[in-house]
Amino acid sequence: MEHSQIFTFALLTVGFVLTPGPNMIYLISRTLCQGIRAGLISYAGLVIGSLFYLACAAFGITALLFAIPMAYDALRFAGAMYLAYLAWQAIRPGARSPFELRHLEQDSPRRLFLMGLLTNLLNPKQALFYLALLPQFIDENQGQVFQQFLTLGFIQIFISFIGNGLIMLAAGAIARFLTDKPRWLLAQRWLMGTVLAGMSLRMVFETKD
After folding, report:
1. Phi, psi (rounded to 5 degrees) for 134
2. In Å, how far are 1, 28, 84, 106, 107 from 24, measured between CA atoms?
3. Which of 32, 55, 82, 135 is least surrounded by CB atoms within 10 angstroms?
């Protein structure tokens, strides 16, 4: 693969990772409530979910799904509704920011891992990345399509690990900064809600062209 092709994909992946979504919300909440170790265990589950999507994309299973209009539309609208639900949860009266300190039950490592896995498998943002975005960077003329999928997939996983790791490490400091600043907490909630709502609308009007 050409270096410019990989570089462009990497830049898009960075922007994708930094966009608020279910994975980020889950990792932040687990890290704040149970510590960085719990966040890393949860992230291990997210990685397995990413590997599952990568395998589906590489072996062409997703091509079959997107070849069926009704299946594609069902996935698209379900994802849009889920993102809209998350947006409402962020801005509804009495809602709390993911950076707001709180006390939750301490989950076992096994449950943390499984919740991370399920969060990623049911994450429409992650699904669309592997089903729609990554295949656009595959060049059949270069051959070795399977290796191209693996290369791009592992680049995404690596960048996601670094990005989410930094977010988890900074979560405590951000939470402490926002604790005594209710207006900042409100602004953060509305920013996240707006981004999620925008993603929901984009998915509603998404086409397969």
Report:
1. -55, -45
2. 30, 6, 16, 19, 18
3. 55
For 159, the enclosing helix (H) or strand (E) is: helix 145-179
Q: Give the tens place of pLDDT for each residue, 146-178.
A: 788 888 888 988 998 888 888 888 877 776 666
Burial 79-99 (b: 16+ CB within 10 A, else e): bbebbbebbeebbeeebebbb
| Alpha carbon distance 6, 158 (integer Å) | 13
Give the three-class secondary structure for 106.
coil
Query: Which among 125, 118, 117 has a CA at the least distance from the CA of 76?
Result: 125
How far apart are the C-alpha atoms of 32 and 104, rounded to whole Å?
A: 10
Q: What pTM does this model have?
A: 0.64
The set of residues, in sequence order, having a beta carbon less than 8 Å from that of 197 and lying 6+ positions away, is 83, 84, 87
- The pLDDT tens digits for 30-80 are 887 778 888 889 889 988 988 888 888 777 755 665 566 676 677 667 667
Cβ neighbours of residue 208 closer than 8 Å, sequence gap 6 or more: 66, 69, 72
